[in-house]
Amino acid sequence: MSNEINRISNIAKKYEKVDTVMYALNKEDLKRYAKKIEGNKAVGIDKVTKQEYMENLEENVEKLVEKMKKMAYRPKAVKRVYIPKLGTDKKRPLGIPAYEDKIVQMGMAEILNAIYEPMFKEFSYGFRPKRSCHHAIAYLREMIEGRKVNYIVDLDIKGYFDNIDHEWLIKFIEYRIRDRVYIRYIKRFLKSGILEQGKMLKSEKGTPQGGIISPILGNIYLHFVLDEWFDKRVKREAKGYAGLVRYADDSVACFQYKEEAEKYIRSVKKRLAQFGLEISEEKTKMIEFGRYANKDRKERGEGKAETFEFLGFTFYCSVSKQGNFRVKCKTSKKKMRNSAKEIKEWLKRRMHEKVSETIKLLNVKLLGYYRYYGITDNTQGIRQFYEIVVRTMYKVINRRSQKNRYSFREYEAKISNYIMKPKIYVDIVKMQIAMRKSDMQKAVCLNRASTVL
Predict the structure, then answer these.
(1) Helices (H) and strands (E) in the chain, counts
(2) pTM of the shown model
(3) Which 8-state DSSP code applies to residue 19?
(4) If pLDDT is split at 50, 70 and 90, which confidence band does 453 have?
C-alpha cells in the first residue's frame, strides 16, 4: 500500500466517514498501477495494449491526472465478449475495460478496500486479502463439525453481477465516503456503457465481470444486503444455531433447526428482492446435513445424507479414522468433467507440437489444478484426474502418426513418467485448528475486557 492508501485506511478506522480520497489517485500511484496490471489480457474498445501505453507512461499518466482534476476524464464503454461456460451450451458474459480505465479502476478499488475491509464480516471470504477459497472451505467445515448444525441452505443468486442496483450501490458507498468527486467517478464507471457486437448499450444495472473494481463493489453490495442482515437479524432471531459463509456471491447457511432453515429461504427471497436480486430456484436447496444426518436418515430408511457443492467441491458427511464425525470434500463431478474436457481439447490442439514442450506446459496446468483441488481428503479426486490426463495424452500421441504408435507400456516408460504426479498441497484440518485457536484467543480477550469493565 502507498502512504496515501495507508492514511485513508487509518482515517476509516477512526471515523465513520472519510471526507476526501481522490488525493490517493496521484501520478506516482497511477504509474504503479499501470506497471502492476498484466499485459497479456485482451484489449478494450480503444485497442491500446499495455506495451503501447507504457512506451509513453510519464506523459500518459500526466494527461490522465490533469483530466481527472478537471472532471474531464470519462471511462470508455466496456467491450463485452462471451466465453464458453464449460459443461453447458451457455456462454458467460465478460467485460473488458480499456487499459487506462483499468489503471483508474485499480486505484479506486484500493481506496474501497482500505475503507471497507475492516467492516467486512469474518465469514466473508471472496476477493479479500489473505482469504482464499481454501479458507472459506475450512471455515465451513469447522462450523459444521464444531457447531449444532443439522441443516444446510445452499443459496444461489441468479446473475448476481449483472443485476446489482446502481442506486443502492451508490448509497452503500456514500455510507462511508463523502468525497463527491470520487462518487461521481464511480457513477461514471457504472454508466459507461457496453459495446456488444458493434452496438452501444446502456448499463442501467450491474457491474461487468472482468472489471478490476467489480469484485470489491460486489462485496460491498452483499455486505449490506446479505451479511449485515444475516448477522443482525437472522442469527439474533434464531432459537438454535445459525451461521453463514460467503465467497463472492456463493454462500452456504447452516442451521440447527429445520423450520429456521425453511424460514431463511423464504425471508432471503424477500430480502434480495428489495435490492433487485433473486435466487435461482433450481440451484438453491435445503438439505439435512451434519453430525446426526446419516444416523437419522438411516433410521427413517432414507439412506445416506445428501451432499452439496461449494467452490468446486462436493461436501459429504463422513467419519475420521478414530470414528469421529468429519465433513469431507472431493472434487465435484461437474468440475471434474469440465476440467477433463478442457485438457482434452487443449491436448488435441497441440497434437503435432513437440511432446517435451507439451508436457512442460501440461505440468504447469496440472500444478495449478493440484494446488486448488489437492486438499485434505481429496487424494482420490486428484488421482482420478491425473489418470484421465495420462490416458488422454496416450490417445493424442498415438493419433499423431499411423506408423509410430506406442504400446501403453512403452508410453509409460518414455512419456507418462514425466507427467506431474498428484499431491496434496493444502491441509484443511490444520487450517481448521488455526481457526479454532483464533476463536479461543478472541474469547479470552473478550472475557478479559468484560472483567475489566
Answers:
(1) 18, 11
(2) 0.91
(3) S
(4) very low
- Four-residue CA torsion sign, 397, 401, 402, 405: negative
With a CB cutoff of 8 Å and minimum separation 6, the contacts of 112 are: 173, 213, 216, 217, 220
Residue with cell 458493434: 198
All residues at 6 or more sequence positions from 285 whose CB lies less than 8 Å from its CB, including other chains? 153, 154, 308
Question: In the block, which residue shows the cell 498415438?
Answer: 398
> Over the stretch 233-290, which tens digit does the pLDDT of each residue have?
999 999 999 999 999 999 999 999 999 999 999 999 999 999 999 999 999 999 999 9
Q: Is 116 exposed, middle or buried (0-12, 13-18, 19+ CB in 10 A)?
A: buried
**Could you give the strand order of the β-sheet that contains 151-156, starting from the edge strand earlier in sequence?**
242-247, 250-255, 151-156, 285-288
Pairing status of strand 250-255 against strand 242-247: antiparallel
What are the φ and ψ backbone dihedral angles of 30, each rounded to 5 degrees?
-65, -35
Any alpha helices (H) in 275-354, and if so which ranges?
A: 293-299, 333-349
Sign of CA dihedral 8, 9, 11, 16: positive
Distance CA 315, CA 308 (A): 5
> What is the rounded end-to-end Cα distance, in angstroms, of the chain?
36
Of residues 211, 213, 221, 119, the one with CA closest to residue 160: 221
Grid cell listed for 277: 436480486
Q: Helices 99-116 and 57-69, interaxial angle, to 10°?
A: 60
Q: What is residue 403's predicted lDDT score, i.e. its pLDDT?
A: 66
Strand-pairing partners, residue 254, are 152, 243
